[in-house]
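Quick one: structure for this chain?
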Amino acid sequence: MFIKNQSWNNQLNEEFQKPYFLELMRQVEQEYASTTCFPPKELIFNAFEQFDFEETKVVIIGQDPYHGTGEANGLCFSVNDGVAIPPSLKNIFTEINSEYDRILFPTSGNLERWSKQGVLLVNAGLTVRKDAANSHKHLKWNLFTDAVIQLLNDNCTHLVFLLWGSFAHKKGKMITREKHLVLETGHPSPLSANRGFWFGNNHFKLTNKYLLNNEKKEIEW
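Got it. Here's what it folds into:
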């Protein structure tokens, strides 16, 4: 059982039997045995452990985990407690503060509190080598995460997909726009944000408005 959460495990059980996935797991084992990789092996599927499949409300798609020591915890854009908040996440928090007229800035970049409310914080690739961004791009994680998005698209209603940056936009092509809310903007990284492609997107308020309109509980950002 790759995911301990039974509801996700049941939904993805067919995927886990496919030859590409079994080969992927063999390659991941090999990578972790031969070099330092992140997140820790027990947190690779952490995004699916926080809530049940049917409780999914929001999907945020990242590219791959942070590759610095002690940073990645299996949730995209999230870092462990006590780790300095990365620039992209700082810009995410700044946008939330702006939308909700808040002054206090979060002291932790651990987004588990979002995840437990039904926010799937999933990277397109779930593993990475230490100090080498996108180093597991050659592994077939994309096939798996595409299958996750397809599964959610087909079997859930009124989800919000937050697609930040061109990479996430491409990943969202399979989403049925008539059935779900898809919000797209630039990536929150300083490079994109400083060129005017992030701030003022209003995604967090728009997400909660849509959830309320569809009789779902708001996310406490």
